[in-house]
């Protein structure tokens, strides 16, 4: 894993096309939702198309990395930080083997 | 950036709670859409709440990393692979400074 | 407005194609999210394409009517029923001219 | 079904709260995506919560009716209009019993 190189490649790709102007946090958030739905479409009618899912996941991740960059945060760091909070809401002994929301455990 | 450590922390978190059973590709795809919408909610009425956005982005990323793991692919690798295709659809000279879709450039 | 005729036209359309088998509540819910994102795409980069928006809105509505039918409820009735609850969470004197969530008013 | 009365009730509800200012087509489109994801959440881990689904569907429908009103179109009319196009893309003899997209039939 070399996040930095992916980020730098993405930054260069965007800069060459002069696309920074479109990449407000709000527009990137919309784009993440849009690509997430294209990913969901791979499972729309109960089957699954994992080859397409991989490509759509790449699109979601791309906009996530760009939004993290725009917010000035590191993707891995915010994932690990959030995981601590999630761990408090879902302690192992209560959450084990259950898919309910924390307020219904 | 240490993706591997985030991935391993996530894997342990999931395993301790015996949650692998819920993490089918389809359920993870649904979860990515659900969290993406919570991110979008930070911008629902035209304002922006960037502090909340960071937390919701973390949730989207978490499920993306778990889905990539489930599909057996590396998040960075699929982002870079997809970027090549995007570059072909959006050559610099045509796409520069424009937000139209490739078929309308 | 003749909801009944739209519903009956939709039911016939689905029956002729033998598509009821795909229209589980879950698959319809996924389809609503997918079409909602195509609607959002009309506003992705800050502009707006209202002609496309109308078509995508039609797709969202189509799946909503089918899901209501599947759940055995009337679309108008559940809208009006929910509005009562929303009115309690957002009393006029507190909510007037404000876009905050009810727990922040 | 009395769409007109639901629409008029919604219009009054919005006007009393002076919320028209927030209801741009884009904000309504975002709201539809956000509520659609809350609907999807009723099916997140493979189970289903149909009682919640009904309430979330009501929210999606509410914003759909408001957006149609904002676009100056009738919900039923655009559904029926779109259905004609869909019928051309999915002729009965080709689409019967199949869930593939029209370009893969």
UniProtKB/TrEMBL annotation, chains A, B, C, D:
<protein>
    <submittedName>
        <fullName>Nucleotide pyrophosphohydrolase</fullName>
    </submittedName>
</protein>
<dbReference type="InterPro" id="IPR052555">
    <property type="entry name" value="dCTP_Pyrophosphatase"/>
</dbReference>
<dbReference type="Pfam" id="PF12643">
    <property type="entry name" value="MazG-like"/>
</dbReference>
<dbReference type="InterPro" id="IPR025984">
    <property type="entry name" value="DCTPP"/>
</dbReference>
């Amino acid at each position: 894993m070399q996040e930095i190189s992916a980020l730098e490649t993405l930054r260069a790709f965007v800069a060459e096309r002069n696309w920074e102007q479109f990449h407000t946090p709000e527009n990137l958030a919309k784009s993440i939702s849009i690509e997430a739905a294209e990913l969901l479409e791979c499972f729309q009618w109960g089957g699954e198309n994992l080859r397409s899912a991989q490509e759509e996941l790449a699109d979601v991740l791309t906009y996530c990395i760009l939004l993290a960059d725009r917010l000035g945060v590191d993707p891995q760091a915010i994932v690990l930080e959030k995981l601590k909070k999630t761990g408090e809401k879902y302690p192992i002994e209560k959450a084990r083997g259950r898919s309910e929301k924390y307020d219904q455990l």
